[in-house]
Amino acid sequence: MAVCVPSVQSPAVNTDDGPLENPSVTSAVYEAATTKTTIRGSASPYSLVTLYASEALSISGAAEAKHFLGEVRALPTGVFTLTVDGDLHGQWIAGTATRTFLGPQPGMFSLGRTSELGRAVVGQ
Q1: pTM here?
Q2: Which residues contact 121 (CB under 8 A, 6 or more apart)?
Q3: How many CB atoms lie within 10 A of CB 29?
Q4: 22-58: per-residue pLDDT in tens?
Q5: Rounded Cα distance, 37 and 17, in Å
Q6: Which residue in 8, 14, 17, 41 has a CA-CA distance of 20 to 30 Å to 77?
Q7: How far is 121 from 124, CA to CA, in rounded Å?
Q8: DSSP element (H, E) containing 111
C-alpha cells in the first residue's frame, strides 16, 4: 500500500521577485572619432545584461548570439549603456538579462535565471 506524505515547505526566503523580461536593445551607434560603438537599451532593473552581435537574423527572424560583446549592469530604472571598441554597422545586436541574487557571504553572488535573447537592432 502506498502512503502519501504531504510536502512541507521550507522556511527559506523566496528570492524570486517576479518575471525577468527579455532586454531590448534600442540603439547601437558607431562614433568614427572614437572608433567605438555605444549600445543602449532597457532590461529588468539591476539585471546583468550580456550583449552579442551577429551578421544576420536566424531563418525564423530571431536574433542570434554569435559574437560576445560584453556585459553591463542595468540601472535601477532598467536603462543600460555599453560602449565597445569597433564598428558594428550592419550587425544585429541583442542580449540576455540575468537576475543575480546576493550569495551566502558579503561580496558573493549566486546566479538566478537568464532570459531569452531580447529584441535586436542593427548597428548604425
Answers
A1: 0.76
A2: 25, 26, 27, 28, 92, 93
A3: 14
A4: 899 999 999 999 999 999 999 988 889 999 999 988 8
A5: 33
A6: 14
A7: 9
A8: strand 109-114
112: cell is 538566478
Distance CA 48, CA 95 (A): 10
Reference 113, options 46, 25, 47; nearest CA is 47
To the nearest 10°, report the CA torsion of 97, 102, 103, 104: -170
Residue recorded with cell 504531504: 6
Q: Measure CA 116 to chain center.
A: 8
Q: How far is residue 87's CA from residue 37's CA, in Å, rounded to a whole number?
A: 6
Q: Comparing C-alpha atoms, which of 121, 39, 27, 36 is closest to residue 87?
A: 36
The residue type found at 121 is V
Distances (CA, A) of 73 to 58, 66, 67, 97: 27, 21, 19, 9
